[in-house]
Amino acid sequence: MATNVQVVDFLPQNIELIALSSNAKFKNGLIFISIPFLKIEDSVVVLYEVKTTGTGLIRNTAALITLDQTDANSANNESTVVINPYDNNSPLGLSKELIYLYRVGERLFDLSFNFKITNTSPKGLRNLQLSDDLSKTFGSSVSINDILLSSENDSKIVLNPNYSGFPPNTNLLIESLSYINPNDTLNIKLGFKIFLEDSLKNIFYNSARIEISNDPNTFDISTDGQNPDPDNNGKTSDNNTPTLINLKQPKLNPIAVTLSVIDTTLLAYNTFKVRYMVLLKNQTNSTLTNLIISDSLSKFLPNGMPFYISEKPLVSTTSSIKTNPNFNGSSDTYLTLPTSTIKPSAQDTLIFGLTFNFNSFLGPYHNQVRASVKDSSDNTYFDVSNNGPLTLSWLQDTTTFYINPSTFPVETLISVPGGFSPNDDGINDELNIELLKNVAIDKFVVYNRYGAKIHEVNNISQNTETISWNGKNRDTNSLVPEGTYYYAIYINNSNKPILGFITIKK
């Protein structure tokens, strides 16, 4: 006798449950069947009614999950039925192969597929359209990002830049610009990141569709693998096995990248330099080629903040990475050239620096880099950096730093212009001394060339960002003559004032 038997039916997304018998429960796309005890030769029947909501073959799998006893034969613990067989005489054929599946976070995965499209007709076919509705496979609540589409046949097809995997953007091609020649083959690759936070499922089946948009009789539903006609009977329409996606069997991402802040320097008032280190790791036993590291600094820095690359990308003399001397973080975001490679199981580093005017914004400043590579089969893989020195391809978090004025020499926190012209022309009529936040000033004093005090400001609030002087003598309230004047800025808790001179010219 078997006790506490648990069976689960993984309903595909393109099957909708209509009715279910009382001895089972339905939750999150799963039918749960709990059997407290089951005698030898006994059976339990669960009845439910479903309707299909998609085209092509649909695989529905039920599996024995657990029981109290040891199961001597686990080979018969799953059962699959296929729904929606159909036939047509279309010359089009389509296969869809899962190239790689990598876990890059908690319920976050990288996936890549290859579509192979064949035309067995002696004539070319125009208005070609390939569609793949990922919401029917994974559900509408998942998040799909970083979609990458590529093709080896760019002269024949035009990829749809608006493809999202969700209605209404489920078409991968611009049909009016896409065609396939007689007896020809096309290959298209699709990659994306998927986040399944609210889904408990790990087994999914996916089908795509190829068609001629103005001919409803010329189409095919994809079959799993590399060959649209795996039984070689000359008919692709009888091969429509959905592509299996098993999230329980992910691989390690071939490339991993991290980003760290290794040094920060306040160069002068309002001018700051930060140095970054990029650490890369090849997590395979083969050389990875076409290594491209990118950093869109203009997107990470606050809008409009001026910056420049003060330290060009640098690698060691033994590195196989080729740096890009034209990297500027805005119009050219590539730190490396496509000729870069990384050796099997190797780690490599790249260092670069930027300088920017922070305009009193002390942070936070966030940044991430992206690395992509190709393997020997020309498959493309990518990773987005995590913070710190450890390469964790399953984690993507931003590298963040703040500007802390308390750690810098106080004279670098104060900006005093060299002079001004108080002539009421509306241009540079006042002396404006800029202070960074948290700079505590006791007083500001101006002297003439004879050492007489002509201006003084006391009791300055710590939140003050600007100290101004209109050029008037404090005693006479009239403008002082042109010439050179001397100032002293007394810092809170400091015995040594900041001294300097300014020029007044009217």
UniProtKB/TrEMBL annotation:
Domain of life from the UniProt record: Bacteria
Pfam families listed in its UniProt record: CHU_C, DUF11
Membrane spanning residue stretches: none
Protein name as catalogued: Gliding motility-associated C-terminal domain-containing protein
Occurrences of domain DUF11 (ranges): 2-82
Segments of this protein annotated with the region Disordered: 216-245
